[in-house]
Specification:
Elements (H helix, E strand, L loop, with lengths): L10 H48 L3 E5 L5 E4 L1 H7 L3 H4 L13 H14 L3 E7 L6 E11 L5 E9 L1 H23 L3 E6 L4 E5 L1 H7 L4 H5 L17 H15 L1 E9 L5 E13 L2 E10 L1 H65 L3 H11 L4 H31 L8 E3 L1 H17 L3 E5 L7 E3 L1 H19 L8 E9 L2 E8 L29 H11 L3 E7 L3 E9 L25 E5 L3 H11 L4 E5 L2 H10 L5 E5 L7 H11 L1 H4 L2 E5 L5 H10 L3 E3 L4 H18 L1
Parallel strand pairs: 12-14, 18-19, 18-20, 20-21, 21-22
Antiparallel strand pairs: 1-2, 1-5, 3-4, 4-5, 6-7, 6-10, 8-9, 9-10, 11-13, 14-15, 15-17, 16-17
C-alpha cells in the first residue's frame, strides 16, 4: 500500500515527505542501474559462454569429459573426428572401445594413477578408427562436476604425422645400420679434433682382427698403420695430409697400407668422406682390403707376361724352324748317303791295294787309308744318326712350343688327342724325369675331336706338372705317372694317374675352385685346374678326379667325338720304304727365306721342275704370265704380300690354281691367318717337315691334277 501524505496541515511534514520521495527516486534509479549492469553482465556471461563453447566445439584438438569408469560424457567435434563416431553417438560410450587392445593396459595404468592421486597423466595411445591406427597424445586431469562428483577431463592431440615421421626415420636408421653392418667394405667413422675412430662395422672388426667395438675404438689411427708407408713416407704425417684434404674438399680417395691387430700389413683403398651430424663434422672412411685384388693383378700381370712369352716363343719357333728345316734335311740325306759312301770307299780301297805291288807303296797307302776303314766310317755314320735324332727332337720341341703359343687362339679344328698329349709330355718331360717314370699308353687310333690343340695341350701340361709335384723328389724308381687314352662309344677319354701323396677328402670337392690351392706360396696360383675345367667344358666334355691319401690321384678327361667336320690335314707318317718314281710335275716355291728355297730345290729338284720366288709379289708377277704349275708351295707369313694375299689374288684371277696352293708355316701365324687357312681348306705344312712327307704330298697333288686334265 502506498502511504498517504497530508501536505496541507504540516509544512515540515511536507518537506520530509518530499525528501523521502527524492530518496526513493534515487534508490529506484540506482536499482535500475544495478539491474541494467546485471543484464549487461549476464549478456557478457552468455557471450563468453557462447565463445567458450565455440572454442570447445571447434578446437583443433579433441576434448572429452569422462566418468571415473571411462564413459564419455562430453566430446567436441575434434574428438568425434579422431574417434570416427558422430558427436551425439559418443555419449555414454567407453573410451576403451576406441583404444587399440595392445595399448589399453597403458591407458588403464594412467587412469588409475589419475583417480588415486589427482596428478595429471600424459601418455601416447593408438586409436582404432580405420584400417590404420591413429596415434594420439592423451593428457588427462581430474575435476569436480556441478554436483561435486569426480570427472576426468582429457585432451586428445593427433600425433600420427610425427609418429609416422619417427617411424620413417627409425626405419631409415635401421636400413642404414643394416647397410653399414652388411657392407662388403669396411666402414668406420672418425671424429675431431684428433680424428680417432668412433665406430666400425663388422667388416672393419674382421679386417683389423679385433673382437669388439670397444677394442676397436680404443686404438688410434696410428695403431692401425705401420710406421712407414710403402713409398717411404711416415704414416702419421701422410694421414694428417689425407684427413685435411678430405675435410677441405669433402672427400679424398687414396691407397693406404694398414696393419692388423696381429701386426700383419695389408694394402687397401680408402675413401674419406666429410659428413655433418647435428652440425658436428665427421669423416666416414670406406676401406677396401686389396690383398686378393693385388694377388689377382699379379696373376693377370703374370698372364700378360706369359702371353708375351707365348708370342716370343712362337717367333723363336718360327725362326728356329726355318734353319732347322735345312739342318734336318741335310742331316737326313747325310745319314742316307754315308753308308753308301762307306761301301764305295771300302771297295775302292780294296781295288787300290790290289793294284799297288810294292810293299812300301802299299804301306803308305794303308796308313792314309786307315782313316777310311769301316769302323771309322761306321762311327761317322753313327754320329750323323745321333745328330739326326737330336735335330728331330729339336723339331718336336719347336712344334710343341708352337702349339702352346696358340693357347689363347679361338681356332678349332679336328685334333688328335694323342698328339696334344705328346706335345704336353714334351714340355713337361724335364719336370718329370727327375721325379717319376712316365708311361704313355696311347691308343694311336682315336677318332678326332673338334677343339683347340693348344688349349688341350695346356690342360694336359697342367695335369702332368701337378702329377710331378704330387710324387715329389727323391724316388724316381718307385714313382710313376701313367697317361692312357681310349675311346668309348661317341667319346674319347684320357687319364693322368700318379702315385703321389693324394688329396684329402675335405679338399677333393674344392680342387676345381678358382684360387684354391694346397701348394706353397709361389708354387701355385690355384687357377690351373679351374682353367682346365673351363677349357674341357668349352669343348663339350668334362673332367673328374679320384684320389686316395697316400695312394695317388687320377684325373679323367672326357671329350665328345665330332664327326663330319672338315679340317686342315696334319702331316702323317710316311713309310720309309722307297717309293716308285711318280709323275714329274712343275712346282712354284714361294718363300722369303733363301735357305728354304734352296732346301726345296734339294728335296724336289731331282724329281720335279722348280721355279722359286722370294716374295708374294714376285710370285704374282710370275703367275700373271705363267700358270702352268701343278703345285704352289707358299709361305703363309711373308712381309708385304702374304701367302693369304697371294691366294686371294689367285682365287679372283685363276681359281683352279688357288686350289693347288699348299701353305707352309713356321708356327707363327695370326688368328686371322689361321681362320683364313681353315676357311679355304688348302693343305698346310708346318716347318720343319720330313722330306718323305713333303714328297708324298707333292706327288699326290700332281697325280690329282693329272687326273683332272
Amino acid at each position: 500500500m502506498r502511504p498517504v501524505i497530508d501536505t496541507g496541515s504540516n509544512p515540515l511534514s511536507s518537506d520530509a515527505n518530499l525528501q523521502l520521495l527524492q530518496d526513493l527516486r534515487v534508490h529506484q534509479i540506482e536499482l535500475e542501474l544495478q539491474n541494467e549492469e546485471l543484464r549487461r553482465t549476464q549478456q557478457q556471461l552468455e557471450a563468453s559462454r557462447a565463445r567458450y563453447f565455440d572454442l570447445y566445439d571447434l578446437a583443433p584438438v579433441g576434448y572429452v569429459t569422462l566418468s571415473p569408469t571411462s564413459l564419455i560424457q562430453e566430446a567436441n567435434f575434434a574428438a568425434a573426428g579422431l574417434l570416427g563416431v558422430a558427436r551425439g553417438a559418443l555419449v555414454k560410450q567407453p573410451l576403451t572401445r576406441f583404444i587399440l587392445p595392445a595399448d589399453q593396459d597403458i591407458y588403464y595404468r594412467h587412469r588409475k594413477q589419475l583417480v588415486e592421486t589427482g596428478v595429471q597423466q600424459v601418455c601416447e595411445l593408438r586409436l582404432v578408427t580405420d584400417a590404420h591406427p591413429r596415434w594420439v597424445r592423451f593428457e588427462a586431469s581430474s575435476a569436480k562436476d556441478a554436483s561435486g562428483g569426480l570427472v576426468l577431463r582429457a585432451v586428445l592431440i593427433d600425433i600420427s604425422a610425427r609418429k609416422n615421421a619417427e617411424d620413417t626415420v627409425r626405419a631409415s636408421e635401421v636400413r642404414h645400420r643394416v647397410l653399414f653392418e652388411k657392407s662388403h667394405d669396411a666402414l668406420m667413422t672418425l671424429a675431431p679434433p684428433d680424428w680417432r675412430f668412433t665406430a666400425g662395422n663388422s667388416k672393419t672388426l674382421a679386417m683389423f682382427g679385433v673382437r669388439t667395438q670397444a677394442e676397436f675404438v680404443a686404438r688410434t689411427l696410428a695403431d692401425y698403420s705401420p710406421l712407414r708407408q710403402p713409398d717411404g713416407g711416415l704414416s702419421t704425417e701422410k694421414a694428417v695430409v689425407m684427413i685435411e684434404r678430405a675435410v677441405r674438399e669433402g672427400f679424398h680417395f687414396f691407397d693406404w697400407t694398414y696393419q692388423r691387430f696381429s701386426g700383419v700389413e695389408f694394402p687397401t683403398c680408402v675413401l674419406l668422406t666429410r659428413i655433418e651430424i647435428d652440425g658436428q663434422p665427421l669423416l666416414q672412411a670406406t676401406v677396401r682390403d686389396e690383398t686378393e685384388v693385388r694377388k689377382l693383378q699379379a696373376l693377370l700381370a703374370q698372364g700378360d707376361r706369359l702371353a708375351s712369352m707365348g708370342i716370343l716363343a712362337a717367333s723363336v719357333a718360327h725362326e728356329i724352324n726355318n734353319p732347322l728345316a735345312s739342318v734336318l734335311y741335310n742331316t737326313e740325306t747325310l745319314v742316307e748317303k754315308l753308308p753308301q759312301l762307306a761301301g764305295a770307299i771300302d771297295r775302292c780301297l780294296g781295288a787300290l791295294r790290289a793294284e799297288i805291288g810294292s810293299e812300301a807303296s802299299a804301306r803308305v797307302v794303308g796308313e792314309d787309308a786307315g782313316m777310311l776303314e769301316p769302323p771309322i766310317l761306321n762311327d761317322i755314320t753313327e754320329r750323323a744318326r745321333d745328330a739326326l735324332a737330336g735335330t728331330q727332337r729339336i723339331r718336336t720341341i719347336a712344334r710343341a712350343i708352337g702349339t702352346f703359343s696358340r693357347v689363347e687362339s679361338s681356332e678349332r679344328s679336328r685334333v688328335d688327342l694323342d698328339y696334344a698329349i705328346e706335345c704336353a709330355t714334351t714340355m713337361a718331360r724335364n719336370d718329370i724325369r727327375f721325379r717319376a717314370k712316365l708311361v704313355l699308353d696311347l691308343d694311336r687310333k682315336l677318332p678326332p675331336i673338334w677343339a683347340s690343340e693348344g688349349k688341350l695341350s695346356q690342360v694336359f701340361l697342367n695335369l702332368l706338372i701337378n702329377a710331378a709335384q704330387a710324387v715329389g723328389d727323391g724316388d724316381v724308381e718307385h714313382s710313376l705317372i701313367h697317361v692312357r687314352t681310349w675311346a668309348e662309344h661317341e667319346d674319347v677319354f684320357a687319364e693322368v694317374e700318379d702315385s703321389g701323396k693324394g688329396i684329402t677328402e675335405e679338399n677333393l670337392p674344392r680342387i676345381f675352385d678358382p684360387f684354391f690351392t694346397t701348394k706353397a706360396i709361389g708354387v701355385g696360383s690355384g687357377l690351373g685346374l679351374a682353367i682346365c675345367r673351363n677349357i674341357i667344358n668349352e669343348f663339350g666334355g668334362d673332367i673328374s678326379v679320384e684320389s686316395k691319401v697316400g695312394k695317388g690321384t687320377r684325373f679323367i678327361v672326357r671329350l665328345p667325338v665330332q664327326k663330319g667336320v672338315s679340317t686342315l690335314p696334319r702331316e702323317k707318317p710316311v713309310s720309309a720304304a722307297p717309293r716308285s718314281p711318280g709323275l714329274r710335275g712343275r712346282i712354284l716355291v714361294v718363300d722369303d727365306e733363301q735357305a728354304i728355297r734352296t732346301l726345296m730345290a734339294r728335296m724336289l729338284g731331282s724329281d720335279h721342275d722348280l721355279v722359286t720366288a722370294a716374295s708374294g709379289e714376285a710370285a704374282r708377277v710370275i703367275l700373271e704370265h705363267d700358270q702352268a704349275f701343278d703345285v704352289i708351295l707358299c709361305d703363309l707369313m711373308m712381309p708385304e704380300m702374304t701367302g693369304m694375299d697371294l691366294h686371294k689374288w689367285l682365287a679372283a684371277h685363276h681359281p683352279a690354281l688357288a686350289g693347288q696352293v699348299v701353305f707352309m708355316t713356321g708356327g707363327a701365324f695370326t688368328p686371322m691367318a689361321s681362320d683364313y687357312v681353315m676357311h679355304v681348306g688348302n693343305p698346310r705344312l708346318e716347318k720343319p717337315y720330313e722330306s718323305a712327307v713333303l714328297k708324298q704330298l707333292v706327288a699326290d697333288m700332281i697325280a690329282v691334277v693329272a687326273r683332272q686334265r
